[in-house]
Automatic annotation (TrEMBL), chain A:
GO terms for cellular component: plasma membrane. Belongs to the complex I subunit 6 family. Its EC number is 7.1.1.-. It comes from Nitrosomonas mobilis. NCBIfam families: PRK06638.1-4. Keywords: Cell membrane, Membrane, NAD, Oxidoreductase, Quinone, Transmembrane, Transmembrane helix. This is NADH-quinone oxidoreductase subunit J. It is found in: Cell membrane. The keyword Transmembrane helix applies.
TrEMBL record, chain B:
It catalyses: a quinone + NADH + 5 H(+)(in) = a quinol + NAD(+) + 4 H(+)(out). GO terms for cellular component: plasma membrane. This is NADH-quinone oxidoreductase subunit H. Its main location: membrane. It is a multi-pass membrane protein. The chain crosses the membrane at residues 27-46, 99-121, 133-155, 176-194, 206-224, 264-284, 296-317, 329-351. It is found in: Cell membrane; Membrane. Keywords: Cell membrane, Membrane, NAD, Quinone, Translocase, Transmembrane, Transmembrane helix, Ubiquinone. GO terms for molecular function: NADH dehydrogenase activity; oxidoreductase activity, acting on NAD(P)H, quinone or similar compound as acceptor; quinone binding. Belongs to the complex I subunit 1 family. NDH-1 shuttles electrons from NADH, via FMN and iron-sulfur (Fe-S) centers, to quinones in the respiratory chain. The immediate electron acceptor for the enzyme in this species is believed to be ubiquinone. Couples the redox reaction to proton translocation (for every two electrons transferred, four hydrogen ions are translocated across the cytoplasmic membrane), and thus conserves the redox energy in a proton gradient. This subunit may bind ubiquinone.
Length: 201, 366
């Protein structure tokens, strides 16, 4: 065991433990924070694999943006655990079947030829000037350009749909128009009248 | 350093000695960055109080001094403040989640310090010269909001929670504009490495800095930076008038001070990044005799101080934004502006080479 192994096992055990915590913690806020920890440690594992672009993007996108919004929502929920646990046993067989199918599928993928350690070539460490941001960009915008553009369009559609769902046309709202506010002149608001001085009788 | 490495190899063997000696070396280098930074943070609070005081025709702190030296009056104020904060009790409110309550200030300070790992102080002086430096900076600054959110939730108080919600929405909105503004810098320099970004601005004078071609992006970046650090006029997360003090209303003593330090450390970070990405980092304003003899580090510090002055100036000048106006500025003005500028910059970069080599485009593209 050398230093790199130590780092790997530390990250891996923290990752597994925090992922377990995500599904076992009662409090959804703790679960979400443990998910953040899981993302950060898995990005550490990717850094060990010299995938610095993916590792940092994972932190930037999932930890920095997605999970912030997620926490935002979870913290505002008033979750009643007793009501959530109603009907647990009624749905348990259904959930168990889904979990079993997923486990079998993952097993089939991971035990297939593609993931066989013998058939895979050992990755060669790249030299320090190798920029995998550049390599990834080249692949995305040449070989996989259609898949990439398609993904972008699907995301755009989802975004437009989300905005359209929340858009309500209210007729009673009062909007301020900053342009008109600024353009207001003194004479629009104020009338100066000349008035003779009042005398005390 | 070689002697240290040999010593470690002798004690721990080849496999462990080299990483451990690297670890010790990096820890020492980190201390060499963080200690001056924290001193700068302490004296930034002093500078803020003095500068705002003079702007408001007051004197500011002018009592505490070192060893009774009369011309240093006021200069020991940050030290006295720190000592006072350490002495105070940290009160954990009833019903608060204790672990998260304590860890929240740490989570807000740590990313602000961690981002300094990739900041180049001069061509050779950088702790970690990584390829994806800009991306790393963006990732670290986006982590800072966790401290605020967790503090707001863990305090078990409605005021703190409202402050956290405001802050989360604001930071996420302005991060987009900030990221897009930096995409322009990255397009100009064709690199994510901060050292390369500064090197790309090298030339005869300040005309080569990205400030000139990317001036609107500089404004977007800097204003977004002010919004990200929750500074006035975007400090609705604190909003004394309506939510008391926002997310840190229940904090006291050192826990509160760490939030305070994090805010100022973030300010210095934003000022540094603005200097590196738009004001040419360590480069002198004019590349000739008296100017280029000054060390690059001095120029960088001057630029940082210049940018920091704006933070203080804003705070003394502008009233606080209304929340819906903050959102309008972020989403409806800054993001469209950056999108237009990205397309425009892309079009300029696609111009034929002969056009790019003519004045004034040759300053930045040639």
């Amino acid at each position: 065991m050398n230093f790199q192994d130590l780092v790997f096992f530390t990250f891996a055990s923290v990752l597994v433990l925090s992922a377990l915590g995500v599904v076992t913690f009662r409090n959804p806020v703790y679960a979400a924070l443990l998910l953040v920890l899981a993302f950060v440690t898995s990005s550490g594992l990717w850094l060990l694999l010299e995938a610095e672009f993916l590792a940092i993007t994972l932190v930037l996108v999932y930890v920095g943006a997605v999970m912030v919004l997620f926490l935002f929502v979870v913290m505002m929920l008033d979750i009643n655990l007793d009501r959530l646990r109603e009907g647990f046993w009624k749905w348990f067989p259904f959930g168990a079947v889904v979990a079993l199918v997923m486990a079998v599928e993952m097993g089939m993928v991971l035990m297939s030829r593609q993931f066989d350690l013998e058939s895979l070539p050992k990755p060669v460490p790249k030299d320090i000037e190798f920029s995998n941001t550049k390599e990834l960009g080249r692949l995305i915008y040449t070989d996989y350009v259609y898949a990439f553009e398609l993904a972008a369009v699907i995301l755009l559609v989802a975004m437009v749909a989300a905005i359209a769902i929340t858009l309500r046309h209210r007729t009673d709202k009062k909007l301020t128009n900053a342009g008109r506010q600024i353009a207001v002149k003194r004479n629009d608001r104020l009338k100066i009248i000349s008035m003779s001085a009042e005398k005390k009788e | 350093m070689d002697a240290l490495q040999q010593l470690f190899v002798q004690i721990f063997g080849h496999d462990w000695g080299i990483p451990l000696s690297l670890l010790i070396k990096n820890l020492l280098l980190i201390l060499a960055i963080v200690v001056p930074l924290l001193l700068a943070v302490a004296y930034l609070t002093f500078a803020e109080r003095k500068i705002i005081a003079y702007m408001q025709v007051r004197v500011g702190p002018n009592r505490v001094t070192f060893f009774g030296i009369s011309w240093l009056k006021g200069w020991a104020q940050p030290i006295a403040d720190a000592v006072k904060a350490v002495m105070k009790e940290i009160i954990v409110p009833t019903g608060a989640s204790k672990f998260l309550f304590i860890i929240a200030p740490i989570l807000s300070l740590a990313p602000a310090l961690a981002a300094w790992a990739v900041v180049p102080f001069s061509p050779e002086l950088v702790l970690s010269d990584i390829n994806a430096g800009l991306l790393y900076i963006l990732a670290m600054t986006s982590l800072g909001v966790y401290g605020v959110i967790i503090a707001g939730w863990a305090s078990n108080s409605k005021y703190a929670f409202l402050g956290a919600m405001r802050s989360a929405a604001q930071v996420v909105s302005y991060e987009l504009a900030m990221g897009f503004a930096l995409v322009c810098v990255l397009m100009m320099s064709a690199s994510l490495n901060l050292g390369d970004i500064v090197a790309g601005q090298q030339g005869d004078s300040f005309l080569n800095w990205y400030l000139i071609p990317l001036f609107p992006m500089f404004l977007v970046y800097f204003i977004s930076g002010v919004a990200e650090t929750n500074r006035a006029p975007f400090d609705v997360a604190e909003g004394e008038s309506e939510i008391v003090a926002g997310f840190h209303v229940d904090y006291s003593g050192m826990a509160f001070t760490v939030f305070f330090l994090a805010e100022y450390a973030n300010m210095i970070l934003v000022a540094t990044l603005a200097s590196i990405m738009f004001l040419g980092g360590w480069l002198p304003p004019i590349d000739m005799a008296p100017f280029n003899l000054v060390p690059g580090l001095v120029w960088l510090m001057l630029k940082i101080a210049f940018m920091l002055f704006f933070f203080l100036w804003f705070r003394a000048t502008f009233p606080r934004y209304r929340y819906d106006q903050i959102m309008r500025l972020g989403w409806k003005i800054f993001i469209p502006m950056t999108l237009v500028w990205i397309v425009l910059l892309g079009a300029v970069m696609q111009l034929p080479e002969s056009v790019q080599r003519s004045f004034p485009l040759n300053l930045w593209f040639g």
